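[#protein-structures] MJ: dropping NADH:ubiquinone oxidoreductase complex I intermediate-associated protein 30 here for a structure pass
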Amino acid sequence: MTDKNRSQWDLGRFLETLTYFEVIPFLNWVQQLIQGHPKDNQDRPNGGRNVGVILVAGATGGVGKRVVQRSLQQGYKVRALVRDIDKARSILGNDIDLVVADITQPETLTPLVMADIQAVVCCTAVRVQPVEGDTADRAKYYQGVKFYQPEIVGDTPENVEYQGVKNLVQAAAKYLPQANEKIIFDFTKPSAELKDNWGALDDVVMGGVSASNIQLVENTALFAGNVSTANSGGFASVRTKNFDPPFNLSGYEGVKLRVKGDGQRYKIFLRTDTKWDGVGYSYSFDTVANTWIDVRIPFADLIPVFRAKVVKDAPPIEQTRICSFQLMLSKFEYDGALNPKFSPGGFTLQLESIKAYGGTTLPQFILVSSAGVTRPGRPGINLDEEPPAVKLNDQLGGILTWKLKGEDSLRESGVPYTIIRPCALTEEVGGKELILEQGDNIKGKISREDVAELCVQALKIAKACNVTFEIKQADNTVNSIDWQKLFSNLVKDK
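AK: finished. structure tokens for NADH:ubiquinone oxidoreductase complex I intermediate-associated protein 30:
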């Protein structure tokens, strides 16, 4: 303790660390008392959040506005693509992220419109109304009033149903993430929430004097500082607070870091235990000085560690509950072995992102089309038994023919998709049993509420990927739907 070279330990920083990570409840109570506002669970990082955005096109229509509502209810970030912002505000409210664009004008599908999207739900459609007109709120149309002299109002089916859909698909393909990845942290999109999730956890907690921090700089996270071996120390790290709920990374192979380092060897820890000093699952990775690299970390290669010692009897990491993440530069590897690339002093590690990789491919583009798109001109069709849209396809500018071409543009794009062909849409209350078929033969009706719910559910179901199907409602009401089972018998498009 009398060693002249012994550096001064910082009690204040030690207490700051304990307070930030809520290690001692009393310290947090005192801090809250001084600051004058208690923290609640709303302030806790949420591992169940969706980082990417669901872009809803046709967001003010009968199905689209319901897709927006249900997506928000299920925790998605939603962006509504609209042509008339005042109309959109009156329908969707003031708290929705609105962007003005027109799918028939590809130059309007700008990087701002498409930024951060993880999926697209397209509910656009050409405007059809009775020849004799309709009310301002389209009451006749939405109430399902039958009319036998319909007309197209506004843009043509070719522009909306085909070229517009094709434009949106092509724009989305440039911005959608890789289909089998899940973004956990995207540091290229800095935010206060993102920064507040991470705090320094250095060897000051063990009596050392190393110091580090994490800053959002130039659309990256910069983990930097000075690591010292004085006072028997030798590590610097940054760690997230515990996420509540935790991240569920089941079905993925591992996590992938996009980093630029200084040539040293770093560690990442994933924790499934909310304890301050519990077991962490660790992986060491080397960096290349001043070079961006991708580091893939399979869950199977994570090493269970407690205070730098391997825990021999620990189970494999529980991927369904990843509570926190930690990045570290340490003098030590495991069980007393030294880090062969460790150098005391200043260090820097930049990060662009942390993602889960190797997951199941899910749909990224949901297209609401229409039953009957393959029927115009089909041999053997009895038009007297077909819905009005099939009978009047030519009169309505080939509306179903162009919808089919819009579908084809999506199938050919390489983007994972679900194409939903609802039968006659109604404003009835949803909650009916749903009937899915393929082959474009069924007739019936279905509530717009149920179609909207189907769109949102399809985003989470692997069996819904790259399939086209028709849907109608049965007569009976159901309390719940087994969505996985509903999609289980569908055959993928060839």
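MJ: nice. The longest helix spans residues 157-175.
AK: one more thing. DSSP finds twelve helices and 25 strands in the chain.
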